[in-house]
Amino acid sequence: MRIKNNIPIHGFVAPGFELVKEEFIKNFTSRGEVGAAFSVYINDEPVVDLWGGYRDRKTRAEWEEDTLVQVFSASKGFAALALSLAHSRGNIDYDATVCTYWPEFAQNGKEKITVRQLLAHQAGLSALDRLNIENLEDLDTSRLSQSIAASKPDWEVGKFHAYHAWTIGTLIAELIRRTDPKHRTLKDFFKEEIAEPLNAEFYIGLPAEISEERITTIEGINHPIQLLKGMTKLPPKMLLNFLNSKSLVARSLVDPKKFVANNNFNHRPILSIEFPSGNGVGQVRGMAKIYGAFASRAKILGLSSLTLNELSMGATPPKEGFYDHVNCIDIAYSLGFWKHFSNMQFGRSESSFGHPGAGGSFCFADPDEGLGYAYAMNKHGFGMANEPRELALRHALYSCL
Question: What CA–CA distance (Å, rounded) separates 74 from 270?
Fold first, then answer.
């Protein structure tokens, strides 16, 4: 179908989910959407599968059924899902020390850090400025993991947490490689153990054979007025810390070389390396299907009840509480995921787990409903969580259940 200004909208919603389609259309007519997709699986069956708008605004190339989209930090959730399978198979214990599996990690006072603390962003390894990132390829797990292993924590482990924006994916990927009996990289483990069994297209490290014509063109916020309006949505303390290059916020988020600038993700080099903190690319339908399979404990994955129980447990805060010293707001972290908490409520209860991405993408599992959820777009909003377009869809979905 075509809506206002001849914008194309495709897909379906199951009976009872008509409100979701209405809100998806409103995103284009009222909320400035350019191109997006939204998908929901319940008990491993699709109930929402919508896509529309333009993959590339300038060329007017339409968002197709098989379009792939970059989801930035939502990639971290898929890395954490892979690690949960390693846990399910007895390859890793969340309460063991990281150096049990990765001996080099014990350098500079890190020998007592547990896997659980690491995945909860408590390890003090969020800063970029001492990681020898001189070339884009230095962000690949094979290189970045060595720099992280040699680094010293910036705070007493377990005292507080701070978002490991560009390092947590590498930490997870190295744990996968160290504990997998076949010593596969994360991108190969994910492909062979999750994506292929589920016939779901999602990549951490884009294969060379994937045509660029299938990939969206990401739009950041470039207009000065839009930028100023967006900045007002950030926590004031976070804005102030951005101005201080020595602050933990700046050291954890600001990349002096601009390798992680939005526009770089429109080009092959950064999409091709293994950088699970931020370069995941896939079909939104596939993302929802993957999270849905974890939410429903689909037999094909071999996810144990013990692991699903771990994923479903509420987050335990560090000593100083839920305040995140990088994002400068309260966030609940557990096992590599964000959890249902205060201003970030998703799913029916704190059993839900997932991860948002820069600009507004969001993917999560709701075990209470056996539900997998995924939304992604190519026009970025400001910030990461509770982007208005995504939030409208989330509220509409749960009003239909």
Answer: 16
State the DSSP H helix or E strand holding residue 203, giving kind and residue range, or none if neither. Answer: strand 202-204
Cα separation, 336 vs 328, in Å, equals 18
Task: Name the packing angle between helices 388-400 and 18-29 (round to 10°).
Answer: 160
Q: What is the DSSP string of 112-130?
A: T-BHHHHHTT-SS----TT
Q: Tell me the pLDDT tens digit for each residue of 36-63.
A: 999 999 999 999 999 999 999 999 999 9
Task: Please give the pLDDT value at position 106.
Answer: 97
Residue 258: is it exposed, middle or buried by C-beta count within 10 angstroms (0-12/13-18/19+)?
exposed
With residue 291 as reference, give the H or E element that holds it. helix 284-295
Asked if residues 204 and 186 have their Cβ atoms less than 8 Å apart, the reply is yes
CATH number of this structure's domain 4-87+182-400 = 3.40.710.10
Q: Would you mind telling me the total number of residues written for the chain in this entry?
A: 401
The amino acid at 73: S
User: Where are the domains positioned within the chain?
Assistant: 4-87+182-400
Residue 208, both tokens:
């060379």
